[in-house]
Every structure is written in C-alpha cells, then in structure tokens.
User: Fold this.
Amino acid sequence: MDVELRQLRAFVAVVDAGTFTDAATALGLSQAAVSRSVAALEAALGVRLLHRTTRQVRLTSAGVQAVARARAALDEVAHLRRAVERSRTELRVGYAWAAMGKHTRRLQRAWAARHPGLPLVFAYSNTPAAGLVDGSADVAVIRRALPDPRFDTALVGVEARHAAVSTDNALARRRSVRLSDLVRYTMAIDDRTGTTTMDLWPAGAGPATVRATRGVDEWLTLIAANQAVGLTSEATANQNPRPGVAYRRVRDAPPIHVWLAWWRDDPPAGLDDLIRLTRAAYGPAAPLDSPP
Assistant:
C-alpha cells in the first residue's frame, strides 16, 4: 500500500493537536476520517506510530522518527506547490498573531500605488513560520526566532510590548504597567507562535502560573474572562480589539523586533520593494543587521 499525503497530514495534525478530535477540527474533517487516515498510514508502514488512550495520544519510538520525516515530506510538497504557482496574481504575506498592526493599511496602500496589478494580501497562519512551510504565504511576518536555514529574513521594524488584561482587572484602570505588575496573575502564553517567554523576567521572578494557549483567539477569550493576563506586541493591540480586554503598554519590557521572512532559494517577485515599503511604514527601526 502506498503512503498518501492525506495520511501524513492527518498523522502530523494529531501529533500537533494532541487528540484526534482537535486534529479533525484543525483539518476540517471528521474524527473518523482522521482516524482512518492514521490507521492506513500505520498499515502502509507496517508499524504502530501512536499509543492511543481515551484522553490523549503519544508517539511510539517509531512514531518519533516518522513524524520528523512526515513533516519534511509535507514541507517539500508545499514548497513544490508554491514554486509551480508563481503565476498567481497576488503576493501573500503570512502572519501568526497580527499583520503589521497600525502599519498594515499604510503598507497596502503604498504597495498598491506601486504594484496595481499585484494585490498585497495578508493571510493568518498560526504556525512558527506563518505559512511559509505549507506554501500558504510567499513572505511571512515574524516576531520571534526562526532558526531554519531554509529561510532568509530582513528586519523591518520594532514594536512596543503591551499587556492584555480583562477590563474587570484593576490593571485596566492604569495607563501603563510594569512586568512586575503581572506576576501575581496567571500568564497566558502561546509557546509555538507567541512572543512571550519567561526570560522577560529575572530568574525566579516571573509569573507563578502559566496557561498554555494556541492562537490569538483562544488567548483573548481567556483574558476577557479574567482567567489570565497576557503580553503581546502593539500590533496585536491595534489589530485585535476585543470586548472585555484592555491593552496597556508595558513600560519596562524590551521591544519586539519584526522581520519579513521568505524561502532562501525562492524569493518572491517584488521582495526588495516590499522590504523598503515596510521599513518606511514603520519608520526608524532597530539596527537592520539584528538577527531573528
């Protein structure tokens, strides 16, 4: 039996999501379809890839090796698809949390004036490379380290950090806050695509409780319910207003660097102009040789 791409996608989705139910939601399929695909993959390979329980799944030793190979295969297929679709009529910019905040419309207008036949389209992708790997983006907005030699990057701007708190929280009555003001609360952190790490606080002085989240919507819902607080870029504050959530600038937090990233061996048409226009939209930025 041949291995099929849909089987690899289902397998990787289950590993990433942690359950067949969540994987099915992410893929837009039924749970039964995902289960069948993973079972078919195991049959094709002649080995069990996942240990299944009623609450979770975990990789077998063979699964640990297989998932890395599966990711690589899917990456290459996506890259191939992207390469043969170069004739499409738009330049897609992927982002994980926020595009470029208040600079997004300014950049789109500037781009449209110079490239009227090539719309600049921003596409949400809650993945570390913001859509580059799966081919859904030609360029990605990156706000955290991207240690992947397949991609090149260019620093385009810097952003202040903002705290996100419930409007019921006492911190919402302040104009700004400090990092130390947040440690008494549960901190919501997306460690896959977010910009908040415990390194922002001195050793032993960070939040006592951390709540893992996936993506900006889950993060905001948790904060609006006053079940956690969060830290994010000013772009998130500008682009994601939410009833029940107040954003306050953090006075003593280091800024967030913003890069554009693209495939090293396949830079999109108009890349140099996009970098120039994005830097102009942000204005004076950090040193342009700062690594991601």
